[in-house]
Design a protein that fits this description.
Layout lengths: L5 E3 L3 E5 L5 H9 L8 H5 L3 H15 L4 E8 L2 E13 L5 E8 L8 H16 L4 E7 L3 H9 L3 E12 L2 E10 L1
Parallel strand pairs: 5-6
Antiparallel strand pairs: 1-2, 2-3, 3-4, 4-5, 6-8, 7-8
Helix pairs in contact: 1-3
């Protein structure tokens, strides 16, 4: 899929992830307020982990299977408030979306705005794409963002993902 490296909304700019974003990624993931039952918390512990994650995401962009953007404030592009990504799923025309917003910027509507802008932009390029998302049942914020962004609840999946050696039940959503 041919996709833009920069996507703008009213208050945000989604731009292709850059290696210099590692410090924001690390400070967000290692902040005590970041949930412990999310896979990124296990995966990113040091600055080296954060840099490796970003380098892998930059390389994946070239495969057209994973695209990751930093969510920046339009009024100050140096302020990164979160991240959003699309990952190709095995089903035809289905892409998984994942996102996080830094604790200091939550409850400001940034996740909804970024998700809506990304899905609208992609749909303009390819109407047949279906977006898929999962959110742990305990993650009320992500579940609310998905519902408020036009995603439809499909099912509760008891084995949603594994984190800290245990299954985390997740709600599964889609947006057509």
């Amino acid at each position: 899929m041919n996709i833009a490296e920069t996507i703008e909304s009213k208050r945000l700019v989604l731009r292709k992830i850059q290696i210099d974003d590692w410090s924001v990624l690390l400070s967000t993931i290692t902040d005590p307020s970041f949930p412990t039952d999310l896979p990124l918390k296990e995966r990113i512990v040091t600055h080296g982990d954060a840099q490796l994650f970003i380098l892998q995401r930059i390389a994946a962009w070239g495969t057209s299977n994973i695209f990751t953007w930093s969510i920046c404030l339009k009024k100050d592009l140096q302020i990164i408030v979160g991240q959003i990504s699309l990952t190709k799923r095995p089903e035809p025309n289905v892409w998984a979306v994942a996102f996080w917003v830094n604790h200091d910027h939550q409850k400001s509507g940034y996740a909804i705005e970024a998700l809506n802008q990304l899905t609208t932009f992609i749909k303009q390029k390819n109407e047949s794409i279906i977006f898929w998302a999962g959110a742990a049942i305990w993650n009320k914020g992500s579940n609310k963002v998905l519902k408020n962004s036009g995603f439809t609840f499909l099912q509760l999946k008891e084995d949603g993902y594994i984190c800290n050696g245990k299954q985390v039940p997740s709600n599964i959503y889609e947006k057509k």
